[in-house]
């Protein structure tokens, strides 16, 4: 009997231009060549594979949205499909790119003026500077809009930043970190480009013993009297509303990455149940195992369809913030189910790194929580349905 291993069950890739499909395949192949052979070991050791960094600039994955940094014109659907390919290979590497390109470069692209975009984006696109994005704090995660405590004080032509950040991806080795701080004069949240090597008072300490996305280097940051010239304040970021615009954009990408993470687990499970035999037959021939696979493919297919339409809305220039929040919540929740079913299909080997499912099982947890938790994104949607904010 003919069988399909292709998770793109409804042929969404055909909506991409031929050139975009070819580029996505090139990215998949580069990840399979450079990331696949080393990733489980790095995951286990919680180390970032710095040797893979040089492959990304030429693949055009850094800052594809901005004229200053993109290598070619591209669509949101293409960028989404690329995020899926990253997530399918490894969600930590996807997150590394998501933080550098999605959060840091998009913060500069959306909230920086033309001069700031020209100054920072080309070097970040070439990978000469790696970025991070510092919003979350030790005492404020979901409530950063209201509670953010890091302060920015204007002193002459400079700003002085004081405070602490937590969970900041890439921050142990980033060259530039966009720090979000509250201007003590007008109480508004503003973004500042902090150059880590030349900013006394800035320290980043790796968060150890993480059990999800172990390859991502998350850090606690302290800012003690860090001085930032006015030219490094993001000139078009004048309140949390602007920070939220960046988050809506990256949320759409995280949704695609999360589909990819589920796809990676599903593909590994299909391979495994086809090869492994019990009761003298392949696991794949049992009805209950097939049910796990069909349910997984259903979740993946629904998620791809939702993300596809979200990307089309973005390409059409229509509002998408609410849709991105719903997609991020829905897809990460469905992805969490998929990795659970796939883990189950592998029996004991499902909790062992070598089979490619355990890592995705653990990583689904962080995807479900960062870039707005499941609850926060649903509350954004709930506010849109009812007109009532239930955050507080
Ligand atoms: P909390 O806000 O304390 O929430 C705990 C629980 O309470 C959650 O389930 C939440 O949904 C729920 N909750 C909170 N308020 C409400 C409410 N009003 N109603 C209902 N439920 C509620 N941040 C950055 O700035 N930069 C990064 O690069 C970055 N990378 C990250 C990478 C990883 C691996 C992780 C785990 C986090 C990262 N974060 C980063 C932080 C991330 O965005 C936060 O973890 C997230 O926003 C949740 O905040 P919290 O962990 O403080 O949880």
- The span between the termini is 56 Å
The secondary-structure element order is HHHHHHEHEEEEEEHEEHHHH
What small ligands are held by the chains? flavin-adenine dinucleotide
Instruction: Tell me the β content.
Output: 5-15%
| Low-confidence region ranges | none
Q: Mean pLDDT across all residues, rounded? A: 97
Helix content: 40-55%
Structural class: alpha+beta
The largest pleated sheet is described as:
7 strands, mixed
Rg on CA atoms, Å: 21 Å
Keyphrases for this structure?
binds flavin-adenine dinucleotide, 9 strands, globular, alpha+beta, 392 residues
If you had to describe this structure to a student in words, what would you say it looks like?
It is a single chain. The termini are far apart. The radius of gyration is 21 Å and the shape is globular. The chain has twelve helices and nine strands. Helix 5 (91-111) runs antiparallel to helix 6 (114-125), helix 10 (321-345) packs antiparallel against helix 11 and helix 10 (321-345) crosses helix 12 (374-386). The chain is 51% helix and 15% strand. Strands 1, 2, 3, 4, 5, 6 and 7 form a seven-stranded mixed sheet that branches. The protein has a two-stranded antiparallel ribbon with strand order 8-9. The mean pLDDT is 97. The chain is an alpha+beta fold and 392 residues long. The protein binds flavin-adenine dinucleotide. The site of flavin-adenine dinucleotide has 20 residues, from strand 1, strand 3, helix 11 and helix 12. Pfam families: Acyl-CoA_dh_1, Acyl-CoA_dh_M, Acyl-CoA_dh_N. Residues 18-128 form the Acyl-CoA dehydrogenase/oxidase N-terminal domain. Residues 132-226 form the Acyl-CoA oxidase/dehydrogenase middle domain.
């Amino acid at each position: 009997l003919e069988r399909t291993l292709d998770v793109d069950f409804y042929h969404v890739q055909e909506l991409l231009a031929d050139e975009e499909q070819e580029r996505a395949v090139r990215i998949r192949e580069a990840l399979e060549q450079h990331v696949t052979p080393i990733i489980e070991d790095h995951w286990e050791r919680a180390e970032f594979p710095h040797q893979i960094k040089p492959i990304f600039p030429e693949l055009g994955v850094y800052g594809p949205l901005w004229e200053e940094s993109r290598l070619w014109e591209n669509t949101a659907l293409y960028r989404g499909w690329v995020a899926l390919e990253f997530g399918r290979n490894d969600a930590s590497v996807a997150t590394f790119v998501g933080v550098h390109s999605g959060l840091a470069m998009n913060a500069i692209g959306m909230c920086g003026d033309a001069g700031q975009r020209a100054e920072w984006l080309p070097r970040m696109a070439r990978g000469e500077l790696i970025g991070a994005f510092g919003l979350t704090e030790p005492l404020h995660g979901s409530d950063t809009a209201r509670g953010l405590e890091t302060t920015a004080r204007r002193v002459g032509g400079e700003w002085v930043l004081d405070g602490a950040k937590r969970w900041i991806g890439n921050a142990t080795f980033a060259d530039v970190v966009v720090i979000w701080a509250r201007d003590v004069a007008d109480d508004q949240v503003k973004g500042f480009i902090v150059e880590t090597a030349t900013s006394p008072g800035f320290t980043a300490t790796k968060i150890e013993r993480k059990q999800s996305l172990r390859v991502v280097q998350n850090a606690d940051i302290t800012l003690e009297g860090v001085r930032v010239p006015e030219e490094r304040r993001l000139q078009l970021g004048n309140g949390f509303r602007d920070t939220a615009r960046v988050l809506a954009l990256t949320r759409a990408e995280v949704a695609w990455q999360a589909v990819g993470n589920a796809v990676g687990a599903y593909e590994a499970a299909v391979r495994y149940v086809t090869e492994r035999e019990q009761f003298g037959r392949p696991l794949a021939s049992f009805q209950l195992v097939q049910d796990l696979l069909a349910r997984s493919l259903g979740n993946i297919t629904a998620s791809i369809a939702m993300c596809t339409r979200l990307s089309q809305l973005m390409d059409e220039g229509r509002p998408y913030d609410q849709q991105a929040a719903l997609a991020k919540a829905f897809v990460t929740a469905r992805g969490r189910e998929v990795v659970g079913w796939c883990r189950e299909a592998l029996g004991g080997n499902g909790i062992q790194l070598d089979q490619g499912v355990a890592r995705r099982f653990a990583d689904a947890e962080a995807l479900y929580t960062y870039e707005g938790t499941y609850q926060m994104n649903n509350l954004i949607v709930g506010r849109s349905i009812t007109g009532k904010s239930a955050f507080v």
